[in-house]
Amino acid sequence: MPEQPVTATSPEHPTHWVLTLSCPDRPGIVHAVTGVLAAHDGNITESQQFGSPTSGRFFLRVQVASGADRAELESALAPVAEQFDMTWSLDVVGRAVPTVIMVSTAAHCLNDLLFRQRSGALPIDVVAVVGNHEALRPLAEFYGVPFHHVPVTTATKADAEARLLGIVEESGAELVVLARYMQILSDELCTALSGRVINIHHSFLPSFKGARPYHQAHDRGVKLIGATSHYVTGDLDEGPIIEQEVERVDHTRHPSDLVGIGQDVEARTLARAVRWHAEHRVLLDGKRTVVFR
Amino acid sequence: MPEQPVTATSPEHPTHWVLTLSCPDRPGIVHAVTGVLAAHDGNITESQQFGSPTSGRFFLRVQVASGADRAELESALAPVAEQFDMTWSLDVVGRAVPTVIMVSTAAHCLNDLLFRQRSGALPIDVVAVVGNHEALRPLAEFYGVPFHHVPVTTATKADAEARLLGIVEESGAELVVLARYMQILSDELCTALSGRVINIHHSFLPSFKGARPYHQAHDRGVKLIGATSHYVTGDLDEGPIIEQEVERVDHTRHPSDLVGIGQDVEARTLARAVRWHAEHRVLLDGKRTVVFR
Amino acid sequence: MPEQPVTATSPEHPTHWVLTLSCPDRPGIVHAVTGVLAAHDGNITESQQFGSPTSGRFFLRVQVASGADRAELESALAPVAEQFDMTWSLDVVGRAVPTVIMVSTAAHCLNDLLFRQRSGALPIDVVAVVGNHEALRPLAEFYGVPFHHVPVTTATKADAEARLLGIVEESGAELVVLARYMQILSDELCTALSGRVINIHHSFLPSFKGARPYHQAHDRGVKLIGATSHYVTGDLDEGPIIEQEVERVDHTRHPSDLVGIGQDVEARTLARAVRWHAEHRVLLDGKRTVVFR
Amino acid sequence: MPEQPVTATSPEHPTHWVLTLSCPDRPGIVHAVTGVLAAHDGNITESQQFGSPTSGRFFLRVQVASGADRAELESALAPVAEQFDMTWSLDVVGRAVPTVIMVSTAAHCLNDLLFRQRSGALPIDVVAVVGNHEALRPLAEFYGVPFHHVPVTTATKADAEARLLGIVEESGAELVVLARYMQILSDELCTALSGRVINIHHSFLPSFKGARPYHQAHDRGVKLIGATSHYVTGDLDEGPIIEQEVERVDHTRHPSDLVGIGQDVEARTLARAVRWHAEHRVLLDGKRTVVFR
Predict the structure, then answer these.
(1) Whole-number Å distance between alpha carbons of B119 and B111
(2) Which reaction(s) does the protein catalyse, per the Swiss-Prot or TrEMBL entry (chains A, B, C, D) (predicted)?
(3) Which residues pair with A58 in a beta bridge?
């Protein structure tokens, strides 16, 4: 999780905070954390927890309304966090996460994300759209978002990725969404942006990894097609899965039909993954995700 | 919630407890409860909570492994419960809830519940099957469950219900499941067994209340049919909904097809509602339910 | 079904035709129709039929590639149609149906329909957007569609509807889509446009007719919310249902959450209904629809 | 498709026939077939067709009520079948297909199939249950079906398969259902019973082939688990897929939970595949299936 900016609050206007943490599981974690929150007149409005039997780690997500400001909460939570060896983050509920969306030529995911942002259904602030083609510039500009054309060839890939990283850093983006971006990120970039890049793969992973998954699905004669949204790691199509969805198809469907049907599923699946990430509902448990929906 | 029997435990073998409670919402509830649990070396394995904005009530379900016995936990929790004006119950996770299943002639729900109980997928102990017809006696007896034939006519309804209530009381049943039982319970019986009777209605309520819902659905030309499992109250088909499910249908389906398709949905929906009830995952919030799935 | 324009074709370039018909059911219909098509070197690529046991009517939809032109096919089919007392229509597969979309302030359905049209997923040609508010003008204009602001008050309703009817007639629209248009059409307009107006109702009809269905659904504590797309008749929310869809919700959802969740379901449901209508897959069987998906 | 027994019929009582066929696609097939049916006073009640663009084959399934008997229809259809080089079969709608079910120790699929047969939801006649364990004998016998215990070890596999083939032949079974049978059939047996063996695999193929698919699914952190019913070929888990279904899971589920959740999906998926096969709704198009649902 990236650093969160400091948010101003005042005792007169309680802020709605979201606290997420993970740590080795042992008794007393919830009591300790809720003790800190109660001491700051915190009213817990939502709370979810999970003890992972495979990793032995404990995960907690709490929404709490409190008049305390960030500094007070952080200094009160710090000793508890140290005592239990926690990885943790504190944010304001509903804060729009600065986001860069990367695209090629397919518009459906970009259109869906921009529309949801505008209608208030997605707590992100799209600060830039980056395309390796010009095709989606008008759509981005209709929504008032700067569009950067960053073409990629084998020869220019390193430069293009440097420019992308520059855009991310200058724009203050905390999240990068690959919205059917048809280039593979280098290991270096995956590492630099680790945990901050969400991709949509157009198959029900681990089925049909790699290219042309709908054609693979058609060849195999599957009766459901799907999409998978996952964090990007250096290991292609193997990153931790955030969300998956399927749609029924039958023998009458050509591969090109599957592409069309799949677009709906892709857009829905990606939008959910992005929303849950932006709401701090997704925590990493090794190669798996904990999703507090 | 009915009284729970006292369960023996020992410090050497921690018991896995499930605590559920509801009370007027105010700060400090979770901290107070987790404090009691921490003081008894309780390790929380699952916890869910909800503050209802419509009723102003707070709901909590906690699973906790603790070496403390029931008496210790109850006496430690009692002051907190009093302080916050809680309705609460404490049970052992996985205890099979003594259950009476009531049937007429349709076998699908009974078959499903008995099979799930035997395969360990449903924490109930079916202590009796009561039928107003003899048809399902062989099925009950195959699973080793006593079958009581209690026919009902207008003239004998009061006697039949008295006999039913006798069976419930003598068998120690805490739950009554109406598994396509085609008689309407009297207001008196509904009151006597309030919160302990689960019904399956063969429509997506509130659509198609009353008789022959699949025929009503066919007449209206709906594209999805459904089933609704709910607590029984004196107000027919208006009790709090626990679970609903639907299945796609099309114009080719006769009402008799809908009946067949619906049987799958009914059985699944009822099984889920019964399991969640038996696992203390369903709490009442006025006319609505809180379901900690 | 409205009149279809004559489409030019030539023997060298076979046209892909779609023929739909309904008539009283009796033996020999398919053989007679396929005989006409075979006599014109027609290659049937898709065919669906249904004999309705409730109405006694037979329904057929055939897609056929043939070098014959419209006049030849129509004059060859006419005697068969007369013999069997058919209601029938002939169109070119994939022809974009001229469509007027009516809106108020909610953008999700309009955005979805316009995006699908542009990406080629919906065989409609949106010739005008009519809004009783100005809010959605920019969206319509981004897609290059003329926007007409036709405000409606009780006093001006008759004039507004006359203007609407004028827009439909002048634009040559064959279909009117109410994409969350928050005005009730008069009986006169419903009659004038009978079978050509599709609405999206934001509930799983027949549950929660009328206003504020998500609030009704929340009050009743349902576990699934839905949307219904139907032809508009003078009988509000009672027109023939084309498509329905649901989405799971739980106790944590406020009515405002349901509104947001419902928007996705509404847009998807309406898009499917519009596509099936535009592809001549929806035929009326009294108050019910036959949908050849 | 196996040979169908001759079924008696009389002109006074029309029989409801189901005709399925496939052949190289070319114009005139439907007209020729419906001509034969019309000449025998056939009233078509259901008809579905499909031209496969990948294989170039045409597939047809027709239900037709006719007073003609099997011999009359067969001799009238034979010339057409020869003309178009058809593979075809003629059966009586609803005839119960003699079926052998093979099991190991898991009861859920067997219970589901036997219950559906008894309740009339599945047009099969289970003539024998074969188990490599004794565990499911009581369940088979409750439904009045002979149970054969045929244990399998590496040393006895050939003998066991010979015995199995003997049971299939002596019982006149046309279909063999592997209802969580935990032995792999030899290539010889797969060939001998080609197109007549349906398996249920407990994953969403092609994900998680082979053993312990739910553990594989858990390790990968998928958000949906599934089941796949397919024809058995010598190529393990690669046979033509008939039906697939999924169910949502989340991070809280242990592999053992997935097994339990999966049982419902497996039973439903297998029951659908068996029903469609028994109703002659499944036709083979190379490695893919055409399913006329």
Answers:
(1) 12
(2) (6R)-10-formyltetrahydrofolate + H2O = (6S)-5,6,7,8-tetrahydrofolate + formate + H(+)
(3) A23, A51
Q: Which has the closest alpha carbon to C241: C280, C205, C279?
A: C205
Amino acid identity, residue D19? Answer: L
Asked if B225 and B262 count as a contact pair (C-beta separation under 8 A), the reply is: yes
Burial of D1 (0-12, 13-18, 19+ CB in 10 A): middle
Domains and CATH numbers, chain B: 15-92 (3.30.70.260), 97-291 (3.40.50.170)
A111·C115 Cβ contact <8 A: yes
Q: Using DSSP, how many helices (H) and how many strands (E) does chain A show?
A: 8, 13
Task: Answer whether A268 sits within 8 Å of C263, measured CB to CB.
Answer: no
- b/e per residue, B265-277, with b = 16+ CB within 10 A? bbbbbbbbbbbbb
Q: How far is it, in rounded angstroms, from Cα D53 to Cα D30?
A: 17
DSSP D207-256: TT-SS-HHHHHHHHT-SEEEEEEEE--SSTT-SPEEEEEEEE--TT--HH
Backbone angles phi, psi at C158, to 5 degrees: -60, -45
Secondary structure of residue D42 in the 3-state scheme: coil
Does C42 reach chain D within 8 Å, measured CB to CB? Answer: yes
Contacts of A268 in chain C (CB under 8 A): 264
Measured between beta carbons, which residues in chain D are less than 8 angstroms from residue C43?
A: 26-27
Quick one: DSSP state of residue C69?
-
Please say whether the beta carbons of C161 and C191 come within 8 A. Answer: no
In the stretch 121-150 of chain D, residues with CB closer than 8 A to chain B read 121, 138, 142
Q: Taking a contact as any Cβ pair under 8 Å apart, which residues of chain C between 247 and 276 contact chain A?
A: 252, 260, 263-264, 268
CA distance C37 to A82: 80
Whether B264 and D260 lie within 8 Å, measured CB to CB: no
Distance CA B27, CA A41 (A): 7
Side by side, which strands form the sheet with D15-24?
A: C87-92, C15-24, C57-66, C43-51, D43-51, D57-66, D15-24, D87-92
User: Cα dist. A109→A180, A269, C268 in Å?
Assistant: 7, 10, 15
Q: What is the pLDDT confidence band of residue A4, given thresholds at 50, 70 and 90?
A: very low
Give me the DSSP letters along D94-155. TPPEEEEEEESS--HHHHHHHHHHHTTSS-EEEEEEEESSSTTHHHHHHTT--EEE----TT
- The rounded radius of gyration (Å) of the Cα atoms in chain A is 20
For A168-188, how does the pLDDT look when each residue is reduced to its tens digit (9 = 90+)?
Answer: 999 999 999 999 999 999 999
Tokens of A191: 């590492």
SS3 D66: strand
pLDDT in tens, D72-127: 999 999 999 999 999 999 999 999 999 999 999 999 999 999 999 999 999 999 99
* D171 Cα to chain A: minimum distance (Å): 33
Closest CA in chain C for residue D58: C45
The DSSP output letter for B69 is -
Per-residue tokens: A244: 């998956």
- D22 contacts D57 by C-beta, under 8 angstroms: yes
Q: How far does Cα D229 stand from its chain's mean position?
A: 9
Chain A contact present for B284, CB below 8 A: no
Nearest Cα to Cα of residue D92 among D79, D115, D74, D76: D74
Spatial distance between the Cα atoms of A160 and A182, rounded to a whole number of angstroms: 14
What ipTM goes with this model? Answer: 0.91
pLDDT in tens, D185-231: 999 999 999 999 999 999 888 888 888 889 898 989 999 999 999 99
Distance from C-alpha of A121 to C-alpha of A271, rounded to nearest angstrom? 10
b/e code C239-274 from CB counts within 10 Å (16+ = b): bbbbbbbbeebebebeeeebbbbbbbbbbbbbbbbb
Instruction: Report the candidate in A164, A131, A129 with the shortest Cα–Cα distance to residue A143.
Output: A129
